[in-house]
């Protein structure tokens, strides 16, 4: 979940030199408030999410609902566009898409 938009993030898939599409595990993609796609390092996003949880706990002794284990994030449609030259997002390879039930992860 992206720390600003609180929407589900996806892994980044890019082709390697041989043309094989590979998952870049350390980079997540998200849709920003202005409807453009963005990229964020997985570790940086996790730290920002933890900061948000701790601030909420210190403020009112609760955890934000979206950051609780029982909360189910809505499934989003697959993004296949390019982010203004910054982080190209490639559709999931067919094998991976079938493993995910044809939906976004």
Please give a structural write-up.
This protein has 105 residues and is of the alpha+beta class. It has one domain (10-99). It is 24% helix and 25% strand. It has two helices and five strands. It has helices spanning 42-60, 94-99, and strands at residues 10-15, 21-31, 37-41, 82-83, 87-88. Strands 1-2-3 form a three-stranded antiparallel sheet. Strand 1 (10-15) and strand 2 form a beta hairpin. The longest helix is centred in the middle third of the chain and has 19 residues, at 42-60. The radius of gyration is 15 Å and the shape is elongated.
Lay out the secondary structure.
Blueprint: E1 10-15, E2 21-31, E3 37-41, H1 42-60, E4 82-83, E5 87-88, H2 94-99
The structural class is alpha+beta
Oligomer status:
single chain
Q: Within the largest sheet, what's the order of strands?
A: 1-2-3
When the domains are counted, the total is: 1
Q: Total number of helical segments?
A: 2
Largest sheet: 3 strands, antiparallel
Average of the residue pLDDT scores? 78
Features:
alpha+beta, 5 strands, elongated, disordered C terminus
Question: Summed up, what is this model?
Answer:
This protein is of the alpha+beta class.
């Amino acid at each position: 979940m992206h720390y600003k938009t609180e929407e589900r993030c996806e892994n980044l898939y890019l082709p390697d030199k041989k043309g094989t599409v590979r998952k870049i595990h350390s980079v997540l993609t998200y849709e920003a408030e202005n409807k453009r796609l963005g990229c964020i390092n997985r570790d940086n996003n996790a730290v920002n999410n933890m900061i948000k949880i701790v601030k909420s706990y210190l403020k009112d002794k609760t955890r934000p609902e979206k950051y609780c284990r029982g909360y189910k994030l809505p499934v989003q449609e697959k993004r296949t566009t390019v982010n203004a030259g910054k982080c190209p997002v490639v559709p999931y390879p067919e094998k991976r898409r079938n493993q995910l039930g044809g939906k976004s992860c």
